[in-house]
Amino acid sequence: MLDLGRTFLQSVERSPNTLALVDGDVRLTYAQWHETILKAAGGLRGLGLVRGDRLLVVLQNRWEMATLHWACQFAGIVMTPLNWRAKPEELDYCVTDAGAKAVVFEPVSADAVYASEAAQKLPRVALDDALGTTSFDALLSGQAASGTTEATAEDLSLILYTSGTTGKAKGVPRRHRHERAAALAHVAQNLYRYGERTLGVMPLYHTMGVRSLLAMALVDGLFVCMRRWNGPQALESISSFELTCLYLVPTLYHDLLAAPGFACENVASVTKLGFAGAPMSDGLLKRLSAAFKPELFVNHYGSSEVYTFSIDQDATRKPGSAGRAGINTRLRVVKLDAVSSADLAAMHEEGQIIADLLGDEAFEGYWNRPDANAKSLRDGWYFTGDTGFFDQDGDLFVSGRVDDMIISGGENISPVDIESVLSLHPAVDEVAVAGVKDERWGQRVVAFIKRRDYVDTRTLDAWCRESDLVNFKRPRDYVFVDEIPKSPVGKILRRKLSAGEYDLDTTNNPTETTKE
Predict the structure, then answer these.
(1) Orientation angle between helical segments 207-218 and 176-189, nearest 10 degrees
(2) Terminus-to-terminus CA distance in the chain, angstroms?
(3) pLDDT in tens, 97-147
(4) pLDDT of residue 147
(5) With b meaning 16 or more CB within 10 Å and e meaning fewer, what string describes 28-48?
(6) Rounded to whole angstroms, how far apart are CA atoms 84 and 82?
(7) Beta strand pairing status for 124-126 and 134-135?
(8) Which ranges in 378-453 belong to alpha helices (H)?
(9) Comparing C-alpha atoms, which of 299, 396, 314 is closest to residue 349?
(10) Where does the AMP-binding enzyme C-terminal domain start and stop, copy by copy (predicted)?
(11) Which residue, 23, 118, 274, 294, has most beta carbons within 10 Å?
């Protein structure tokens, strides 16, 4: 299999004069970008990094970030991107855990780098007016690397650090062959053609952002950088560059539809929508279908560890369905208390979703975390920690996380089922359901609502009663909030809701309880 450096060379050789990268005033063709990438690779060598070393990069989605990703692939250096919002203690941990040999940062992440003892011991490449041991301009000013790549398909391409919302972040090392297989699968499963154009807004420290970057190179496409999400700016990029495909988390689609100036004619160039990272509510699915009328609407379910679990290329066909196993994947659903990969759940029985580690996109284990490996890797299968079930057609439904499961009165209750029902009410803008401690029930089902228009508990309770939601799943409390707390990539943080970490919408009765 080709390594990723040679994969990029394919596009340079096929389409040297095709526009490849845009970031504000920066416009680079594949030939121009290749030249810049080789300069960056040479600069990293000049810092003393050699094949197999880890480079910690704390940048937003800017052209320098995308360039460094490819430079690492050519040089055989392991790209190790980190959330630019990381705190000093997170930087300390990741620098030490990864054994990083240098750090690249910018003003938005500078305070954390300055305050990190571990980072201060390393060469530090600073962008803009941040202060480091050298600058990015200086990195590009030395001798360029040779045009041939120094990596093989078996070398590590990058280490992605998971969000670590329940503890220390886990490093997910991935080889060139894992990354190339995942990118090829992304192209195939999203039916990308040569010359596709996408919005590069999903963070390049996250698997979705990396996949968009690699996939565009595979099809000689255009990657339009967006440093951080801005709805009007996204609309402007779609229109100006005639973007053809979007791959976002549901939260960003929600914000795009709400952006001032959104009009169907302004996004007419977009023919393919894809989403991942979190389930999409039935209500948002319908709104997007009406607004974009896409020829392809893909629900992608995956992770950093195994890029694709399952795919549904017609997300509106069976709302809530994550489809079937991807082209490089085998899936099973085992019982919630299963120890073995052979302890299968029955059809429609909620269990834990597991994936075959022999799949081409699957990682081989966590970085320096035998404890995490012992918990998640068994019998050659990756235990995802996600819950779900197969229906009678063989389609997978993802119901949540094992840790998010609400146990109320002895019943296992998935938040996603309830959220799907409530999302369809026209006055509900966003909804999240979580379990809150209750002396009688163990946990009480509580719906947290961000309103689009005024609605009260009585109305929403009647809505649930008239749906096909079974009674024991019906929320017992409704809390109206200003915002639903989410991670930087749009995942609902239910633990914050359960812990009371939210701001109430006090314009009307903020908390109301239903009649039993």
Answers:
(1) 80
(2) 61
(3) 999 999 999 999 999 999 999 999 999 999 999 999 999 999 999 899 987
(4) 79
(5) bbbebbbebbbbbbbbbbbbe
(6) 6
(7) parallel
(8) 415-423
(9) 396
(10) 418-491
(11) 274
Task: Return mean pLDDT, the chain.
Answer: 93
What beta strand segments (E) does 420-508 contain? 428-438, 442-451, 477-480
- Write out pLDDT tens, residues 36-74: 999 999 999 999 999 999 999 999 999 999 999 999 999
Tell me whether strands 411-413 and 406-408 are parallel, antiparallel or unpaired.
Answer: antiparallel
Q: Which amino acid is present at 454? A: Y
Residues 6+ apart with CB under 8 A from 3: 73, 149, 151, 152, 153, 155, 176, 180
Kindly report the number of other CB atoms within 10 A of residue 111's CB atom. 13
Q: Which amino acid is at 478?
A: Y
Domain boundaries, the chain: 1-19+27-187, 405-513
- Check: CB of residue 387 under 8 Å from CB of residue 344: no
What's the average model confidence in pLDDT over 154-161? 98
The residues facing 436 across adjacent strands are 444
Q: What's the one-letter identity of residue 406?
A: I
Phi-psi region at 334: left, alpha or beta (left = phi > 0; alpha = psi -120 to 50) = beta
What DSSP assignment string belongs to 62-121?
A: SHHHHHHHHHHHHHT-EEEE--TT--HHHHHHHHHHHTEEEEEE-HHHHHHHHH-HHHHT
Number of Cβ atoms within 10 Å of the Cβ of 233: 15
CATH number for region 1-19+27-187? 3.40.50.980
Q: Which two tokens stand for residue 411?
A: 């019943």
Query: Smallest Cα–Cα separation from 317: which of 277, 282, 358, 362?
Result: 282
Q: Widest CA span of the chain, in angstroms? A: 73
Check whether 410 has a pLDDT greater than 70: no
H helix or E strand, kind and range, residue 462: helix 457-466
Rounded Cα gap, residues 272 and 274, in angstroms: 7
Q: Percent helix, strand and coil across the chain, each rounded to 5?
A: 35, 30, 40
Residue type, 152: T
User: Is the Cβ–Cβ distance between 406 and 394 less than 8 Å?
Assistant: no
Q: What single-letter amino acid sits at 359?
A: G
- On the question of a common fold for 1-19+27-187 and 405-513, the answer reads no
* Separation CA 109–CA 111 (nearest Å): 6
DSSP SS3 for 13: helix
Q: Are strands 272-275 and 245-248 parallel, antiparallel or unpaired?
A: parallel
